[in-house]
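Work package 3, deliverable 3.1, input record:
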Amino acid sequence: VTLLTDFGTVDWFVGVMKGVIATIAPTSSIVDLTHQIPPGDIRAGAFALTASCRFFPRGTVHVAVVDPGVGSDRKAIAVQTADYLFVGPDNGVLSWALQRESIRSIHALENKARFLKPLSRTFHGRDIFAPVAAHLSRGLAIEKLGPDRNDFVRLEWPQIRRTERTVRGEIIYVDRFGNVITNLDAATLSASKGTRAHVFTRGKRLCPLAPFYQSVGRDKPVGVLGSSGFLEIAVNDGNASKQLKLGVGSKVEVRFQ
Amino acid sequence: VTLLTDFGTVDWFVGVMKGVIATIAPTSSIVDLTHQIPPGDIRAGAFALTASCRFFPRGTVHVAVVDPGVGSDRKAIAVQTADYLFVGPDNGVLSWALQRESIRSIHALENKARFLKPLSRTFHGRDIFAPVAAHLSRGLAIEKLGPDRNDFVRLEWPQIRRTERTVRGEIIYVDRFGNVITNLDAATLSASKGTRAHVFTRGKRLCPLAPFYQSVGRDKPVGVLGSSGFLEIAVNDGNASKQLKLGVGSKVEVRFQ
Amino acid sequence: VTLLTDFGTVDWFVGVMKGVIATIAPTSSIVDLTHQIPPGDIRAGAFALTASCRFFPRGTVHVAVVDPGVGSDRKAIAVQTADYLFVGPDNGVLSWALQRESIRSIHALENKARFLKPLSRTFHGRDIFAPVAAHLSRGLAIEKLGPDRNDFVRLEWPQIRRTERTVRGEIIYVDRFGNVITNLDAATLSASKGTRAHVFTRGKRLCPLAPFYQSVGRDKPVGVLGSSGFLEIAVNDGNASKQLKLGVGSKVEVRFQ
């Protein structure tokens, strides 16, 4: 079972989710993806899940709880894919990861027999998502959780515009090192013609595309195809986000020669 | 075994506690409740333990180390309750959780054969509490750890004052989302008469009591019975502590109509 | 398997390392030493590993990834010692720990069959160190990873100068509580003559050496032999680093009487 939340690590919220899982499924192992998604930032959670879910063994249950609408009428879902199970609120946080998987079935979480009792209005991570994930990790059939659904809420992926020699996208995530990650993946970039490429921001040439951070001098910016499979802009031995004033939503263009 | 400390996650202190436990009890699983209790804040640690300990399986060993008096003459204890074992310094950090449990026996930790050697004066989390918890998780009888004791140090629970239609308490914890949690639990509130209620602070009406955060408009304050079983004040999609200038110790009154 | 990195806990980087390990070695347990080494601070990582590695069971695989040169031509190594295995970049991060162990063999990590495919240029923690550690934890012979090497890159230990009644060293680490840890260990101090000692900084007497933090009054500084086995300077119930303006590199002298 993996856990991805915006609960932080200051309080006991993640700890009690693990207690609930351990009570139901004592032999399941639990791995934290991250609990420091900015509070309520569904897109950051969706991207973190996309970047990490495929590095886990087949059969892993991925739980993502970034859930600003907890207690309202938003739905909760579990999704079976060819390789994994995904559990979370149906608010889009699962959607970017699911769009890269082969989906087998989608179920609404409505069978209260699999929830914690009493069910709180404010902490479904503990009361719904943790027990459901624990039951799934023990082998409970997904259809026992609630009725079939045809689809799930999808977040829009930031628009990509392309000409023969340019690709435009935007920054989708800033990591701990200040590297800024764009929505342009390897397939998107390799579809363009040209052997050399440069990254442009605000209409000005910023840096070359290169194989790794040290391809440029210290304190110089560089575009690399990062470990998550997306173009990222880094400053060698520096913090690209701060030094270049780039953040989520900043537009980026790659021009090939 | 659960671990709750004020050691933070920046240094290696929690890691070595886990190493000590794994050396003695290789098959015991370890869950972090939190390690970010403010340094030395016994009351915050006591509340976090109270809010989380009951979500773990029977037989769990709960270790709480918020221990500003480490190395002085404060005692260390292990307590057997009907469902759990608790281990920590006898400075009150265990007391609020223990007062909600059915206590079977209390033992001073004095049997040095169960401690790490050499025993440091500054890190009993590693040298006393981790090995003792590991031995208990392997089934060591609690009376092997040291002599029986009659009682433990109790922190005072902040005073609750009640009239027929009002209940007064105070804020006891601020969580990562800025929600402020009071010392008024469900039983205390339900003993009052009245179908509608409002929360007052500094003598002024602040907000209604409602079933969940979205019961009020965005950026509006609301009182809800939170997931820990205590009244909390939140701002829908905001940070109650910052926006309402409420912190630990702030007085709160609930008036029923 | 223990993990020590500068990846932080905000992103998913540590989570995917654990996913990679769980895929290869599902029954190996993983313990976090810390992931909050300051980005690229090889010396802080080296000290954290030194202070913690010996508290783990024999056979533990210690992985340390503080790797500002990832993607460049720095080497990667695995080292077998009498009690442990160490895995990481050959940039010195392992060196202070290794110098206290009894080394059996050193191997370069060159057998790409044991790496993740495709191998990224930016995230060897996930693509090289995690899978190699997982294979070692399952019992793979270390010589399968690559050719023997004679030595590893060694960080210089800050200089210690000694006269009959004085020892000079410097601060090497600041912990979460603001305690400042020096490079002077128990053996170094006990070699000096004198029954009483004082710590001097900037040529002025700062505080006595004493057995524990509470040996002095509240808010007073004190030198203690800390839990990691090194002299540290603390302020009782305070933050020594901030209050005394001491940080990594500050010079410290102990004078015995």
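The interface with chain B takes residues 7-16, 18-20, 22-23, 26, 39-40, 68-72, 120-123, 126-127 of chain A (CB under 8 Å).
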